[in-house]
């Protein structure tokens, strides 16, 4: 038995290219960010773990050098909050909402009450209740 194929309607050529180009840019930016984060992680922690194994095998690593490598790993954790805002717009926006020094003057911080009313499914009743309580 053969099933007849319905002709599909292709997207317009320019619309298709724009859609593909937009998503490929996002994918490229996401892979770049991930590559930088993983690269920083390996640069920071790989020497520590290699030295840790060497210390277990031959007991030949000076304590001061081991401490320096440990702090290099800790610096990786310090770099993450710097790297994320540089490469991720959504992270930058979220950080601006909750960290006072990163907020724009025209962007007031949402209060807990407005968030709960906005996220509730019964907004009219909740707002009426809150007005009567307040």
Automatic annotation (TrEMBL):
This protein's GO CC annotations: plasma membrane
Any one GO biological process: positive regulation of MAPK cascade
Gene Ontology terms for molecular function: G protein-coupled serotonin receptor activity
Keywords: Cell membrane, Disulfide bond, G-protein coupled receptor, Membrane, Receptor, Transducer, Transmembrane, Transmembrane helix
Coiled-coil spans in chain: none
SUPFAM superfamilies: Family A G protein-coupled receptor-like (SSF81321)
Matching InterPro entries: GPCR_Rhodpsn, GPCR_Rhodpsn_7TM
Transmembrane segments: 27-48, 68-87
Stated name of the protein: 5HT6R protein
Organism: Elachura formosa
Name of encoding gene: Htr6_0
């Amino acid at each position: 038995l053969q099933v007849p194929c319905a002709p599909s309607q292709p997207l317009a050529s320019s619309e298709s290219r724009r859609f593909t180009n937009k998503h490929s840019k996002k994918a490229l930016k996401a892979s770049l960010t991930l590559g930088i984060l993983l690269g920083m992680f390996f640069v920071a922690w790989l020497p520590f773990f290699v030295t840790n194994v060497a210390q277990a095998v031959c007991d030949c690593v000076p304590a001061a050098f081991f401490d320096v490598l440990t702090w290099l790993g800790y610096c990786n954790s310090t770099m993450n909050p710097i790297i994320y805002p540089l490469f991720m717009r959504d992270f930058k926006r979220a950080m601006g909402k909750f960290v006072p020094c990163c907020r724009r003057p025209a962007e007031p911080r949402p209060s807990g009450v407005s968030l709960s009313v906005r996220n509730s499914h019964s907004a009219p009743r909740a707002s009426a209740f809150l007005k009567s309580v307040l």
